[in-house]
Amino acid sequence: MPIQKEMKEQLKKYIAIRGYVESEALFVTIDGARLTKRGIQQRIIKYGDMAKIKGVRCSCHTFRHTFAKLSVQQGANIFELQTILGHSSMEIVKTYVNLFGSDVRESHKRFSPLKVLERRL
Hints:
Elements: H1 5-18, H2 37-50, H3 60-73, H4 78-85, H5 90-99, H6 101-111, H7 113-120
């Protein structure tokens, strides 16, 4: 999975604050044990409550879904998105494109090859 420079910097800060632990896991509990999937889910819910986020479910799935949506809206290549999300099948990625089809259609209006033809006519 590609990691942007900014994320690398944030991870370095996290590791410096976390300190050395006897675990290969990146995210650990206060005792140094691997943070479980359930533990991550619980923290996301907790931080959503602390941030007073309303009207949206705070979950790992929502983060992933939002990432996919924003990527599609920014014109992400669906083959690259498939790789980043780790999907073995293109079907799930197509779902994201279909879900945000109106957004994609609006973007398409801006860069459609037909605009070039209209100008020439």
